[in-house]
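tool_call predict_complex ligand=S-adenosylmethionine
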Amino acid sequence: MKKQIIYIVLISYFIFSCNNMSNNMIYKRKIETKNNYKYKRGKLIKCLFLGCLCYGATMISYANSALKNISDNKFESLDNDYNIYSQSDYIEEVLSKYNNTIIKDRSDLHQVINNFKFKVGCEIGTWKGYFADAILQNWNGTLYMIDPYMHLDDWNMAFNKDNNTMNSIFNETKIFMKNKFGDRALFIRKNSIYAYNLFEDNYFDWLFIDGDHSFKGIFADLVNYYSKAKYLICGHDYLNMKQGGYDDFEVKKVVDGFARAKNLTIYNYGDKVWCFAK
Ligand SMILES: C[S@@+](CC[C@H](N)C(=O)[O-])C[C@H]1O[C@@H](n2cnc3c(N)ncnc32)[C@H](O)[C@@H]1O
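tool_result ok
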């Protein structure tokens, strides 16, 4: 705006001086020497040149601010009348806006989630509640946490402890989360391959998958929960990794294949977090 005022002042000055000059020229032209006339004409050309420059700069500045307003308003208006429930484009725009930004930790995902007025979320694989705690502190919705908290015979991972250990982890985590968040923290103590049947389609606004990272585990979660999430599906450990002695992580391979089959764009936010909009 300041720039525009300066340009307007400059243009006014230019018009004023041109006017003066042409008056002078009309009255004095007859008595001016040929050289003096040339001098005046040179000045007039300079003024014209300056004027064009100012005019051009003003137009560019106006065009810039108009373009900026258009893109700002786009986000504002969509956000204000909160049309997102029919606005998958808006979700996609927000996701791409944050794409490749470095989220230091998966728990910073609330920066993305809070662009939408999501009410119900779900985390598959909660362990000690590290992600769930950080999300619930920074987001006002209700989070379902699906985790069997038991030894799983078909899950060959370091986190797969004996039943007693899993039981104590569950009790401690549940007490901690319930004291802190009350009914906003809801535990479903089940294996995700059975728990999905408890929920209708589109039950969750968003989903975070961080349970079994083996090929069969992530594949089952994507297939079973795709219809359960209404807007957004994210997860952790977007990589393929050989784990000597344990099942390999094959999250990236499966997520990429699934997204390709469904023609979805994957966004990547740092700390191995992946997301796609439905
Ligand atoms: C890596 S930890 C999760 C960490 C947690 N998301 C966080 O960010 O703090 C993996 C968890 O997935 C759970 N898990 C493994 N297989 C599962 C399955 N099929 N369904 C649900 N949870 C599962 C394990 O019990 C374990 O608690």
